[in-house]
């Protein structure tokens, strides 16, 4: 005779290590099962993965792009400079003297003189310009004094800047003053907008990923309705039924994230050469930055969570609908 | 034979949402370790009675008590645990066709999180008991109807349930096989398992010489 047992057979709750073992067995089963499902349904799995990868690669690549442009405004290499274009009659000696004079001012960190000959040589290096310069005969370039200001002493407002510019203009050798700071400020403003756009696009495409995963899992549930019925009948908890689907969503998100990183990295490889060429033309040692470790981990974490959430929504909706089964 | 009551129906009515009245005022007491047949014409409510015990349906009125406790007291999250006490066998065994015999039978044990070595032992023992010890690697589609039914039985008993509920378990089988399966049930009953079998096969039921409950179709 079976001994008297409580209505619901009590689980071995008194033994924590046994409970933990059960938990581990359940996780192993679910991981094993969900990976097998992916492996044995390669077509649907790949379609979903590619959809996720494409949806994620757009915001990721935009993010990388914006970050790169931001590095232009942050890096030491591109501390804003002020160029004094000198009048054509000013000699090299006079230019050097002026540079010394300007340097003695408190707002100035350093000055460099770019002579017209040097400038011409630089221009000749640039493809296409050499021939154009030849047709001009005489060197049309002026001597230039390039000033690197001390941002701390100069102040940050436009008014401060304009003050300083006005003073520079008063030197009789100076023809024109050009400030590189302006474009940096504009770029910063543009990048702020770009960041917002990236955020919006990311949110939209994250929703897409959520829906794609949710729908894939929903179809998977649809295909396995019989199995869910049977497992329920033999005592499966909702948690047990849910688990393999959640892992399924997690894998889709995670592998989709991997794939999107691959796509973005390949796209960046295509860009490295032309970007380096361009930055060389601007005399910058700017290098196109790839996806760093933090971003990589962020993308993976976000995509995995999206997969998990998408699966969660799909499974819970089903479980909620089918609380009572009618055979 | 113990006199302890395991299952009790108290004035149980069941009306389906379609308006069909399946059970009308059923009062029934089943002792632990009893083997019992439920017969009656189709539509008399045999399946419904079993489903009420397994909580696949809820009564419209009245109570089903297990070990003296009404099932309506069970909370939703306790139901899975309660169902693990029951081995349910259908006329169609509801096997999973993408898994082999072993994996089908192992399912209840996987659900309860048993370690793989124990699962191996238990599943093989259950399959031996129903005479399918050599077919563990076969897939359900490769088996005959009788063999599939026996896989269903192995799956129902592998978790050592205290109750076996069988709904027309021999409906699809030839008489000899049906007799065989009934004897398998009797063997489980011998080791103390309470067995409830719904069947319309009067001849077979009579031969088993157990208590018989006859349900009559409700005419209202």
Mean pLDDT of chain B: 87
Q: Judging from the principal axes of the Cα atoms, what is the shape of chain A? A: elongated
Quaternary arrangement of the chains shown? Answer: heterodimer
- Continuous helix count of chain B: 7
Overall strand count of chain B: 9
Which structural class should the secondary elements of chain A be placed in? alpha+beta
* Average pLDDT, all residues of chain A: 82
Question: Helix share of residues of chain B?
Answer: 25-40%
Number of domains as seen in the coordinates of chain A? 2
Count of individual beta strands of chain A:
4
Greatest contact pair?
A: A-B, 34 and 43 residues
Order of helices and strands of chain A: HHEHEHHEHHEHHHH
Strand content of chain A: 5-15%
User: Number of helical runs of chain A?
Assistant: 11
Largest sheet composition of chain A: 4 strands, antiparallel
Radius of gyration of chain B: 17 Å
Strand content of chain B: 15-25%
Instruction: Give the CA-CA distance, first to last residue of chain B.
Output: 38 Å
Low-confidence stretches of chain B: none
Structural class of chain B: alpha/beta
Account of the 3D structure:
The complex is a heterodimer of chains A (327) and B (220). Chain A is of the alpha+beta class. Chain A folds into two domains: 26-75 and 186-321, no CATH class; 81-179, Alpha-Beta Plaits, CATH 3.30.70.3040. In chain A, 70% of the residues lie in helices and 7% in strands. Chain A has helices at 16-40, 42-74, 92-103, 116-125, 129-136, 151-154, 158-169, 181-223, 225-233, 238-281, 293-321; strands at 82-86, 108-114, 144-149, 174-179. Chain A has a four-stranded antiparallel β-sheet. In chain A, helix 8 packs antiparallel against helix 10 (238-281). The longest helix of chain A has 44 residues, at 238-281. Chain A is elongated. Chain B is globular. The model of chain B has no long low-confidence stretch (mean pLDDT 87). Helix content of chain B is 34%, strand content 24%. In chain B, a hairpin with a 5-residue loop joins strand 1 (5-15) and strand 2 (21-31). Chain B has a five-stranded parallel β-sheet, with helices on both faces. Chain B has a four-stranded antiparallel β-sheet with strand order 2-1-4-5, with helices on one face. Chain B has 220 residues and is an alpha/beta fold. The N and C termini of chain B lie far apart (38 Å). The longest helix of chain B is centred in the C-terminal third of the chain and has 16 residues, at 175-190. Chain B contains seven helices and nine strands; from the N terminus they run E-E-E-H-E-E-H-E-H-H-H-E-H-E-H-E. In chain B, helix 3 packs across helix 4. The chains are: A alpha+beta (327), B alpha/beta (220). The A-B interface holds A 1-2, 4-11, 21-23, 25-26, 29, 226-227, 229-238, 240, 323-327 and B 2, 4, 32-33, 51, 54, 56-58, 66-67, 69, 73-74, 76-85, 88, 90, 94, 96, 107-108, 110-116, 155-156, 159, 162, 192-193.
